[in-house]
Amino acid sequence: MRESRWRLTTVLASANKTQNQILGQWQAKLGSGDGKGVFMLTMNPRGNVMYGYNTAPHENNAVVYTTWVLAKRDGDDDKKIRERLRWGEAQLKELTVSLPLPPAR
Length: 105
Fold this sequence. Notes:
Strand order of the largest sheet: 1-2-3-4-5
Oligomer: single chain
C-alpha cells in the first residue's frame, strides 16, 4: 500500500449523490512549494472506496493526470484495506476509455 508523500491542506468539493461522484479542487504543500489541481472521484455503493482522477503540477509547468484510489479504514485490518484499494484500481483500469493514437507519419 503506497501512501502519499504530501499532506492535503485544502479541498473544495461538490458532491453528486445520485451518481456517487465528488468533484473538486485540492491544494497542498509539495516540497518547497505549493501544488494544486482538480479531482473527480466516484464512490462505490458501500461508500468505503473512492477512485478517480486528479491533475497535478509538473516541474516544467505542464499538467500531470494521475489516479487516486482511497479506502475507508472502518476498523478493518490492512489486508481488507489492500483489497479495497486493489478493487478501486481495477475499476479505473476497466472503466477508463483511451482513444487510439493515429499512426505515425
